[in-house]
TrEMBL record, chain A:
It comes from Castanea mollissima (Chinese chestnut). InterPro entries: NA-bd_OB-fold (IPR012340), RNA_pol_Rpb7-like_N_sf (IPR036898), Rpb7-like (IPR045113), Rpb7-like_N (IPR005576), S1_domain (IPR003029). One of its GO terms (biological process) is positive regulation of translational initiation. DNA-dependent RNA polymerase which catalyzes the transcription of DNA into RNA using the four ribonucleoside triphosphates as substrates. Its main location: nucleus. This is DNA-directed RNA polymerase subunit.
From TrEMBL, chain B:
It is found in: Nucleus. One of its GO terms (cellular component) is RNA polymerase complex. This is RNA polymerase Rpb4/RPC9 core domain-containing protein. One of its GO terms (biological process) is DNA-templated transcription initiation. SMART domains: RPOL4c (SM00657). Its main location: nucleus. It comes from the Eukaryota. It comes from Quercus lobata (Valley oak).
Length: 176, 233
């Protein structure tokens, strides 16, 4: 889910960036350092939407760098356990399938796929029901529920299930 | 008011078919905490089927009752504590000092699109590139959008707040785009406790949202037609 959140960070600036454009330099460095990163607490920082406050700079002992506390607003994307997401399938194998929802990768194990769906290998590996009515393959859209999350240094990885009511492949209204 | 639910599992793979049950044990042996407070309705679950290295027999057809809300960090074996449905509990999971507003996908899409448009005008500098998660986030938000006007969606959903629905639950409902009241209760289990109070207002809200969805898809169809028409003239 997306969140609008206020975060704070200490930006260290080399004196060569001081001058008329100090504020712009701080903001540019902030955007470079923060946008696109991921943390366990807040999830992916998708975009910075505004700067709330830049505090007074403090000169670091010994180095001459100056540290500015910056408060900024940003849009973050963080998956939660229990959340319902619509994801696009990226890979299918006999252990299950991988899907992507925004910047987050989700794995759905074959144990969490309804029992009536079987794995079919081939050029386009897929999971299909016995009557062939429902198919999950690469680029299919599925609605799944997140049941667990794990955070790495740079990304969030989730486990999902489609074994519940109202979960599974999303039908194309045109095809329905 | 908020039902906190954290499932404690032992790291065995398990899957079971329950009517509204979605508690799962993750395949990777992760402990998934579900903390539960006074769940009113008992449920019967069919026997779970799982493949694990150790075989711990699960009783067939047991009913889960509301447990006390205790957070047990260490997973001890408790066959008596049945897994509870996994509930979305954002307020508990986020660090308390962080104030944040959950956003619907349509709101996020409009904000991110605005930023991208700004980047297009500013991007005389070819080195200025938006990071990958931004693109993915924008694509995801746009794809999931059923509605064009976030404000009207927000207004419609706000009527539910007086029944005790939290902001994050409202966003869930908007993002999912449910077609029936059953779907809402199945996908947002934290609302189930207030089912009796919420069913009626929810029906009204869902029909309003359906109208907004329709008008949004009509508008996008018209836009497509006008674009095609423009090409041929």
């Amino acid at each position: 889910m997306f969140f609008h959140i206020v975060l704070e960070r200490n930006m260290q600036l080399h004196p060569r960036h001081f001058g008329r454009n100090l504020r712009d330099n701080i903001v540019a460095k902030l955007m470079k350092d923060v946008e696109g990163t991921c943390s366990g607490r807040h999830g992916f920082v998708v975009a910075i939407t505004g700067i709330e406050n830049i505090g007074k700079g403090l000169i670091r002992d010994g180095t001459g760098f100056v540290s500015f506390p910056v408060k900024y607003q940003c849009v973050v994307f963080r998956p939660f356990k229990g959340e319902i997401l619509e994801a696009v399938v990226t890979m299918v194998n006999k252990m299950g399938f991988f899907a992507e929802a925004g910047p987050v990768q989700i794995f759905v194990s074959n144990h969490l796929i309804p029992d009536d769906m079987e794995f079919q290998s081939g050029d386009m590996p897929n999971y299909t029901t016995s009557d062939g009515s429902v198919k999950i393959q690469k680029d299919s859209e599925v609605r799944l529920k997140i049941i667990g999350t794990r955070v790495d240094a740079t990304e969030i990885f989730c486990i999902g299930t489609i074994k519940d009511d109202f979960l599974g492949v999303i039908n194309d209204p045109a095809a329905a | 008011m908020e039902k906190g639910a954290t499932l404690k599992s032992k790291g065995k793979e398990g899957s079971f078919k329950g009517k509204d049950d979605s508690s799962m044990k993750s395949k990777y042996g992760r402990k998934v905490h579900i903390n539960f407070e006074g769940f009113p309705e008992p449920k019967t679950l069919s026997s779970p089927k799982y493949v694990g290295k150790d075989d711990t027999p699960f009783p067939k057809g047991y009913s889960s009752k509301g447990g006390k809300g205790d957070k047990i960090a260490n997973g001890g074996k408790t066959p008596a504590k049945e897994p509870q449905p996994l509930e979305l509990n954002i307020e508990l999971e986020l660090p308390e000092n962080v104030k944040c507003m959950s956003m619907m996908d349509c709101e996020a899409a409009s904000i991110l699109q605005g930023i991208q448009d700004q980047m297009v005008t500013l991007s005389k500098d070819p080195e200025l590139k938006l990071p990958v998660p931004f693109d993915k986030g924008l694509q995801y938000a746009k794809r999931g959008v059923h509605y064009t006007n976030p404000q009207s969606v927000r207004k419609v959903l706000e009527t539910l707040t007086k029944h005790g629905v939290s902001n994050s639950e409202l966003c869930e409902i908007a993002n999912v785009g449910p077609e029936s009241v059953d779907e809402v209760f199945s996908l947002v289990p934290s609302l189930k406790a207030k089912r009796s109070k919420l069913s009626e207002p929810l029906k009204g809200v869902l029909s309003e949202l359906a109208k907004l969805k329709e008008s949004a898809s009509l508008a996008s169809q018209l836009e497509e037609e006008s674009q095609h028409g423009g090409k041929f003239t």
